Amino acid sequence: MGLIQDLEKQILIADGAMGTLLYSYGIDRCFEELNVSNPQEIERIHREYIEAGAKIIQTNTYGANRIKLARYGLENEVQEINAKAVEIAKKNGKDKR
Asked: Which tens digits make up the pLDDT trace of 68-94?
């Protein structure tokens, strides 16, 4: 089934704020860079949201743009960080619902 068909039949629960959760875990650095440096942490959070009932998960890309990543010297890593975020979300969302 697709998203539209799913929405016609049920209420879909989405995940929560990735950055807020990472910060609550004591991580105080560029959250989007974790897609590349520590993908296991992002995978764990996706799994926890799915286990809690989320049917929709979002990529860890809230600040994954050239301007925001420049604060960390990562402005040239935009494509890699975003691509990895999509890969992680797809891997963890597939067949987990």
From this structure: 999 999 999 999 999 999 999 999 887
Q: Quick one: pLDDT band at residue 2, thresholds 50, 70, 90?
A: confident
Provide the pLDDT for residue 93.
Answer: 83
Domain count, the chain: 1
Do 62 and 21 form a contact (C-beta atoms < 8 A)? no
Contacts for 87-90: CB closer than 8 Å, 24+ residues apart:
88/35, 88/39, 88/42, 88/43, 88/46, 88/59, 88/60, 89/46, 89/57, 89/58, 89/59, 89/60
> Considering the domain boundaries, does residue 9 fall inside one?
no
- Write out the residue range of the structural domain in which residue 78 sits: 14-93
